[in-house]
Design brief:
This protein is of the alpha+beta class. It contains eleven helices and eleven strands.
């Protein structure tokens, strides 16, 4: 009897580029027929497989942001992206084709357990399904439920007002920092300072506002092909007036089992979720992708020192 290699059931419907990787992903349902293909040890990917994965990520980023981020991914690879990141995931459409990505780093900032959310995006044609929200919830559930009764601080850098708005609406103002109406608490300031130092942004962080000046300093072009909006006039005005084109807001979000359950219930009943506004508005509006052209954006500044 001839014995051959049996392809695992969960990977049979993947695109050929993903089936041929030396380390197969864990594939799970995500939302609306979409799935998540997750690598829990990206460091195990061999060099040819890393090159193939970078091609996928570079293409998804260009389509998601309406700008050329090729230099960014090249520099991240040079700095050991696959050896540093804790979890890397692709969002797959019902045919197994990648349409989005995301990832995170397990860290301790100011001696607190933390997740740093890496760069992420979803191709415009697929944003109406809430895939970015679903992916973040997938990540949070995996990590927070291992220690449900302790705080986990989620840290991310963004200059997209809809990202801030989504977290704020999903969790309420008390858990999302910075806030416009109150000073940054001491613990949050220490976590932000530690995270900024790790990112290479330490001297550029304003601890009063959590603004990182010139965070995207190495970009020669734009971060987004089209300026992002949230639909909240006051918030959009703040980002337009206070957050420069190369600046970012360093967000710190206090999470745990109870706020996670709130997000899950909100999603179940159609309420706001952590990134729902981003999904509705998108990083690059649908009409922009048809005319998007490379901007020669040098993306090493997206992650100074080619860190996340």
């Amino acid at each position: 009897m001839k014995v051959g290699f049996r392809v695992p059931e969960q990977t049979r419907t993947l695109s050929p580029d993903l089936r041929e990787l030396n380390t197969p992903p864990t594939v799970r349902p995500l939302a609306h027929g979409y799935r998540v293909a997750r690598w829990d040890s990206p460091a195990s990917l061999t060099e040819p497989c890393r090159t193939r994965m970078l091609t996928i990520l570079r293409d998804l980023a260009a389509r998601s942001f309406g700008a050329d981020h090729s230099d960014y991914w090249h520099n991240r690879d040079e700095a050991g992206f696959f050896d540093r990141i804790s979890c890397l995931a692709l969002i797959l459409d019902p045919d197994g084709i990648p349409v989005g990505w995301g990832g995170y780093h397990r860290r301790r900032f100011a001696s607190r357990r933390a997740l740093y959310l890496d760069a992420a995006g979803v191709v415009p044609a697929h944003r109406r399904f809430g895939l970015s929200s679903a992916l973040m919830i997938h990540f949070l559930a995996r990590e927070i439920l291992t220690r449900p009764w302790s705080n986990t601080y989620v840290v991310l850098r963004t200059r997209h007002p809809a990202v801030y708005s989504g977290w704020h609406k999903g969790l309420g103002p008390a858990r999302v920092h910075p806030r416009q109406d109150r000073p940054v608490p001491a613990t949050i300031a220490r976590i932000a300072a530690d995270a900024a130092e790790w990112l290479g942004d330490g001297p550029r962080l304003d601890p009063r506002t959590l603004l990182v000046r010139d965070a995207y300093r190495m970009f020669e072009g734009r971060v987004y092909g089209v300026p992002p909006r949230s639909g909240d006039a006051e918030l959009d005005a703040y980002f337009a007036e206070q957050v420069g084109p190369k600046d970012a807001v360093l967000m710190v979000v206090r999470m745990g089992a109870l706020p996670l359950s709130r997000i899950l219930l909100g999603r179940l009943w159609g309420g706001p979720s952590s990134t729902s506004a981003e999904e509705r508005r998108g990083a690059a509006p649908r009409e922009s992708t048809a005319r998007a052209t490379p901007t020669r954006a040098r993306a090493t500044g997206l992650i100074p020192g080619a860190r996340p």
